[in-house]
Amino acid sequence: MFLSLNSCQETKDTDSTEFSKSITLTSKKHHEGDYNWQMAPDSLVSDNGELIAQSDYNSKDWLSAIVPGTVLTSLVANGSMPDPYYGLNNKRGKGDIPDIYDKGREYYTYWFRTTFDFPEDKEGERTWLGFEGINYIAQVYLNGKKLGNIKGMFVTKEFDVTDVMKKEKENVLAIRIEPVEHPGTEMSRFNKRTSKMVENANGGNGELGKDVTMLMSAGWDFSFSDGIRDRNTGIWRDIKLYTTGNVKLHDPFVKSDLELPSLEESAQTLRISVTNVGETAQRGSVSANIEDTDITVKKEISLNPGETKDVIFSAETHPELLIKDPKVWWPLNKGEQHLYRATFNFESEDGQKSRPKSTRFGIRSITSDQNTPDSSRVFYVNGKRLFVRGANWIPEGMLKTSDLRYRTELNWTKDAGINMLRLWGGGISESDLFFDLCDELGILVWHEFWMTGNTKPPADKDLYFKNVESTIKRLRNHPSLAYYVSSNEQEAVIEIEPILNALDGTRGYQYESECCGVHDGSPYKYENPMQYYDNTASKRGSRIDGFCPEYGTATLPNVEILREMMDEEDLFPPNKEVWDYMDGNAFHNMTTKNDNAIQQFGESNSIEDYALKGQLVGATAFRSIWENWNYNKLDAGDRFASGVLFWYHNSPVKQVCSRMWDWSLDKNAAFYYSKKALQPLHLQFDFIKNTVTLVNDYPKEFKNYKSKIAIYNLDAKRVYSDSINVDFKPEEVLNDIIAVEMPKNLSQVHFIQLQLEDASGNEVSENFYWRSKDKYEGPWTTTGPLYSGFEALNDLPKVNLKMTMKSQNDDKGLYRVTLENPTTDIAFFNRLKFLDENQKLVRPVSFSDNYFSLLPGEKKTVDVELLNTYNLPDTMTLELEGWNGLANSVEQEIKNNNQ
What we know:
- It is built from 14 helices and 46 strands.
- It has about 900 residues and is α+β, with helices and mostly antiparallel strands.
- It has a seven-stranded parallel beta sheet, covered by helices on one side. A six-stranded antiparallel beta sheet has the order 3-2-5-11-8-9. The chain has a four-stranded antiparallel beta sheet with strand order 1-13-6-10, with no helix packed on it.
């Protein structure tokens, strides 16, 4: 797999200037960094840290290590452990990968070691060693001296190493990492929980909750139900070295008070902490400037050795901080995502400058209340109601993330039309890059603080508070950060609201995810899509109403991905033991309910056929969910709905219960059909009412648009058409603008095409459905026009599409594919994909559309972007495959930017 763990070589250091130096100690292994890291189990190392951190220490027998990374990740990369993401390798009962509970914490206690050079400090310069994230307990040694300890997954910590560094010589860093103190284990069916009971005894026996860590590593029904074997022990974020002057600037904070509803001015308050880390008193001035403005403010300050002061600039004391007609930050589809930058400086009386501290911020207001017909929570951005079409972000299961993965998944999130991501409480506080990208893309973030109703609360409150404080200071300037929540489904929380108010105070808060106008979640599994239309898909009661934190389903990945997950003999017919394990202990019913839905397209005789039909099932389910929430947007439907967070957004491990894209970043049909449903201007069909609805997510009106519907039989003959001219207001939903009387001469399977045209006749959006004549028999039945009776699709005649591909920009991996259906038949459900010389799927690749159908004579262009232009084969083949299409391909030489 070409995705590196945590490619940090292009990390943006906004503080770098001529007055400072910085390096990131990223490993050569997997990351292509500059440093050789090694690791060894503590049980085999008899020496102490003072000796290990000496340049003459013999570590030749140690394993190479991946940093950032976990112990288990490095063991797998070295061949010491099998791949947990393959088949049943991770299953605890097999014992192929020992579990920390069975072996004890010492089994996964490891030493990490590396060497580095660092340029000699200038006079008055201080050198710092900063740790952005270690899980869970660390003892840190440099050049034979112990620097100190770190504890807690979400604490950042810095050490002043000025007097320990060897200038212009090799330095040795050694770190002893211990796992969490309460790793827990699977929950026995004889045990009883003291907190909420939920599916599959998530979180193991609940003990892991006593630590401030990634709780899902104990096991969950959307990942491995029995957990990650080392509980993700390791150095999971970057380690950095940098210099400052004797006055250190840190923890900047910019607060904007935007005038509502006019948005005509904003009062800024700038805060920076200033510490004298030198041995003599300091006098000088702290200044701040805001890019894109003429604003510069300054204040005199004096500091004794070791003293810290907070310097505050407000609009009351500095009127220039009142910005007229500010460039406001908006979420997706609502406006621009303008970002300002504030830079703080210190200059001493004798002209000595310290390392500047810079931060980006956005001018915006995010609030919420329960002033709704059903007292559900509704969010406002810059004073305007926002209909939330969001999703639950799940971290990579073994923290094997990368810049490429972040950029790919978040850009695809925007492309799909998602405007909010929930950092679910059993996961992690994501990286600075994650939040930077959300700022740039207009994606709001709901942040939970590492507690769940499935696990016990943290045992050490002070440690928990330190993790919370460190996280708030790191993230509070991001305009995308919208909401604080203490826990996932846990009422007995540790009170943190005073800390939030003291360190931030600009965002809303609720103590758990299912309170305060947010109801509980479900459904989670595959259900008959017709039940989304009559709102019965959850036995817990009405769900497409109010604000729902978890509502979703799953889909199969593509056949190429399934082949990378298990042995061929387990693929088809599906080996229930393997498939159920890779479905979170069968939580999503992939071998039962989902399998039954696939059979409605005809009995499969191969894994290729089975996986293709699975893509059809997933596309229908995902689109149906989104479109039913659209129908009930805010005041538009027959009940009030303020938002939904799809459960869940991204796959933490390789799994058969995939999402819009799978773990390896191959998009499923569910992505493209979700993208259809979440178009800012969108037409959709109601499969119970047989009506057409128009949805506008833009904050502007449109006039003289035309909504069109056409129905085609299996033989491609049009049997029905209608259209209506419409004007629609900002954010408006026009429900049931066309009522369709279904023709009596419909074929068993037929197709519905919706088109929206602007006043000039240009198509601005399009939607294409397949529908059967089967009658929906009501909730919890397995029949209906979206579920059953699709065998007739196998009678579609074979078609041969014309296809060409031209390069648009080789350096950026941009291409354009042109397709045409020259036949008199429908070309149904066509997929484009790139294969390398070994016929392996190339990814990640962005197609502007895929899994599309073409009517007779119809032409289509698809824009393509190869997202990893530094790791591509020299020649690739673009292949086109379809339900009834003859295979077609175009070979293309690809420019590899790594050559």
